[in-house]
Amino acid sequence: MALTACGSGDPSSSTPVGAQASPAPTDDPIAAVRKVESAAALLPADVREAGTLRIGSSIGFPPGAYYPNGQDKPPAGQDIDIADAVAKVLGVRLERQDASFETILPALGSGKYDVGTGNFGVTTERLKTVDFVTYINDGQGFAVKKGNPTLTTKVTDLTQLCGLTIGTGAGTTFEATLTAKKGVCAEAGKKPYDVKVYSENGATLTALQQGRIDVVMSTINGLRHQAAQPAAQTAFLGEYHRLDVGFAFEKGSPLTRAFQAAVNELIKDGTYARILEKWGTAASAIDTSQINPSEHA
């Protein structure tokens, strides 16, 4: 299956300075969340009886999901809080398993996980094989090393990248977009751009800091957050393409309606807004959760 999604890979023990964020905010907007019977009733009977769901999580890029205190401590982030809040609304416990980004979607199809998170963007290609319940609107953006004179303006056309080396994550929408559009430079009579793919965000940042790549293509919220950390020494070049982001399920999963109802409960009672405010992602809020929306044009 083509993993055309936005998201991040696993963190690395050799993560460079600035790859991770400052300590996580300490407020707990989900502490007061309680089970909502009308949403929980939408779960299959066997799930309600078992009381647990297996969730495969890609953890490695704040503010979505990361390890602020090391991998021996619990992860934190926007995706972690939203998933935990949904579980409380549904009255279930999440059995979270860390997984590399590119392995989660195939594992959904094999039954290893009931649901997956990893800043998975909703794309036309993925909708053929995966179901989504949306919870935020993020997407694709670019960043450079601070002070880089080569690229200083917002990237609105990939021909601006001709002749440059771009670093991005394995199995992401970024890699898929750059690969699909690689001919634009030749069509414009320019030298093609080169794409280097990394399995870890820390490795991508190291390559940027060391000058082995000129620009990074990754998530809007992740790059914006990273640029706000002085140690990262990066500059965010703006949004390129917005994508809805959602919980991922195997096609035909009976869990989607319950998850949609839970997200909408969180939006309605204000918990959702407080989570996004906590992580600085309020600009990516959605008004209502959808199941399998069309990809943004």
* Cα-based radius of gyration, to the nearest Å: 19 Å
- Tell me how many strands there are: 8
Measured between the Cα atoms of the first and last residue, the distance is: 22 Å
Content of β-strand: 15-25%
How much is the average pLDDT? 90
Flag low-confidence runs: 1-21
Largest sheet: 5 strands, mixed
Q: Secondary-structure element sequence? A: HHEHEHEEEHHEHEHEHH
Strand arrangement within the widest β-sheet reads: 6-5-7-4-8
Q: What's the overall geometry?
A: globular
Number of helices: 10
**Main structural class:** alpha/beta
Helix content: 25-40%
Give structural notes.
Strand 1, helix 3 and strand 2 form a beta-alpha-beta unit. The longest helix has 14 residues. Helix 3 packs across helix 9 and helix 3 packs antiparallel against helix 10. The protein is globular and about 60 Å long. The protein contains 10 helices and 8 strands. The relative contact order is 0.23. With 297 residues, the protein is of the alpha/beta class. Strands 6-5-7-4-8 form a 5-stranded mixed sheet, sandwiched between helices.
